[in-house]
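ligand=acetoacetyl-coenzyme A
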Amino acid sequence: MEFDLSEEQEMVRRLVRDFAEREIAPVIRDHDRAGCFPWEIIRKMSPLGLLGAPVPQEYGGMGVDFITYAIIIEQLGHADTSLRTTVSVHSSLAELAILYYGNEEQRRRYLPRLASGEIIGGFSITEPNVGSDAAGMQTIAAQDGDTWVLNGNKLWVTNGALGGLAIVFAQTDRSQGVKGISAFIVEAVLPGFTATEIRGKMGLRSSSTAEFVFEDCRVPQENLLGQIGDGFKIAMACLDNGRLGIAAGCVGLAQACIDASVKYARERKQFGRPIGSFQLVQDKVAEMVIETEAARFLVYRAAYLKNKGERNTREASIAKLYASEAAKRAADRAIQIHGSYGYSDEYPVERHYRDVRADTIYEGTSEIQKLIVGRHTLGIDAFA
Ligand code: CAA
């Protein structure tokens, strides 16, 4: 067993950390306050290959392994969870869906544009009445000649209002249950498709989160992703990748909470001493460090299995559950260490505290991750 990062992985880690410190950290509070999407940062990430990290080079990406991908996402999460969410959904859910389930024509048409950041990708399964029970979706796609006619509403689509594309899941044969769901590549330009930005979010304010409406939206046959009826399995397999991305981002957020807390606890003096010299502060820092390091290894294990081409549903869920809950606790402890200053966006921990709240919810709540781990352990495939 090898615990060291390779030279290349260490180089990528430093590259992303330097980029984040130079280009993201100075502007992110203003973006968060204004709730505006940081297109100028996306444009600067493009030449570094950060928008197509796991995409093979033949399709315009970097073609990195999944541990390296996790390292990139961790560093983005360290800087800003809005941006990390944008990138991990774009790569883990949109790019990898097309890479693994698209035909050659779809890969050549979409992956280079996604990997360069010319367009940003989303993934749309959730609906106003459908969250954890993803198979219960109500959006319908009816075949009409060489097009599919989509009708329905989708909600909480990360990257949904950026004018790019989304992988959209819809019922193509309700009588078939989970085997009656299909996946489509939907470009934002299609008539009958409307994406509206959702405002008023607690956190992730500089990322795009949209509501979709499909009204007789005609999607060409060639945009069917995979086979008819494969949609639910595609969605679940993609979410394994998505959950790995979130877990890696949460490790970054938790590490950012540690770094900010250590700096503050060394500088801030009370009772004539730096507050870091008090054992109750050390206790909080120690808990954060232990949980963050444990989370990082869970992420690496899930990524390692992915590198070997093995299914990692259970390990991705364990990593997502543990890392997101640990990051939530880390953000809470960091605020406590910062006292009243932590309650203000003068310090980044305030943003981390708001942003991390989404991590235990999107791409499967903590409760759903426990259900997946429980089912796998007990060898139970479905609800009895
Ligand atoms: N990989 C491949 N196939 C899988 C799979 C996986 N990870 N998970 C399930 N499947 C297959 C099963 O083997 C089964 O196939 P068979 O019928 O051939 O045996 C089929 O899919 C149905 O599986 P289940 O019986 O387990 O399905 P279920 O209806 O009981 O649901 C669930 C399981 C775990 C609860 C699932 O619905 C789930 O993960 N729910 C949470 C949904 C979610 O994460 N939503 C968030 C979406 S994205 C988002 O948040 C916004 C964004 O912008 C990112």
